[in-house]
């Protein structure tokens, strides 16, 4: 019985936030180890938890204007990446980017954020609540969405 219960608990991922629910406080460090708190009226949050989705964000975000990038908050869950790889390769690569990458190394802070495998999640946050979620699986539609954020 204990094994079955343990297997059931491990099988279910953290419950994702749903539209209309209060956003938890999000405080993360960026690729330069500077602490950032995502404001309750953050507008657009771009979130990834896979290498494939992260590559899409990097390509799309570098193609949009600096003014538009300043309106976005990019969060990445790297808990699935070995910490040595994160420190030796990912973070130095992100330091060359023209935007902040807010990093969740343990995956605990971003655990409740909505996600789909190998897709980019775009979350709209207003008055401390999650108001809309969209998912992107290709660079072209992501870049178009980033160029004209829908919740700012």
Could you state the CATH homologous superfamily? Glutaredoxin
**CATH fold topology:** Glutaredoxin
Question: What characterizes the major β-sheet?
Answer: 5 strands, mixed
Give the amount of beta strand, in percent: 25-35%
List how many beta strands DSSP finds.
7
What does the model show?
- The structure is a single chain.
- This protein is α/β, with parallel strands linked by helices.
- It has one domain (about 15-145): 3-Layer(aba) Sandwich (Glutaredoxin), CATH 3.40.30.10.
- The chain is about 30% helix and about 25% strand.
- The chain has five helices and seven strands.
- A five-stranded mixed β-sheet has the order 5-4-3-6-7. A two-stranded antiparallel sheet has the order 1-2.
- α2 (about 50-65) crosses α5.
- The radius of gyration is 16 Å and the shape is globular.
List the helices and strands and how they pair.
Elements: H1 2-11, E1 26-29, E2 35-38, E3 43-48, H2 51-63, H3 66-69, E4 72-77, H4 83-94, E5 102-104, E6 120-126, E7 129-136, H5 139-147
Parallel strand pairs: 3-4, 4-5
Antiparallel strand pairs: 1-2, 3-6, 6-7
Helix pairs in contact: 2-5
Summarize the model shown.
The protein is α/β, with parallel strands linked by helices and 152 residues long.
Based on the model shown, name its key terms:
152 residues; two-stranded antiparallel ribbon; 32% helix; 5 helices; disordered N terminus; alpha/beta
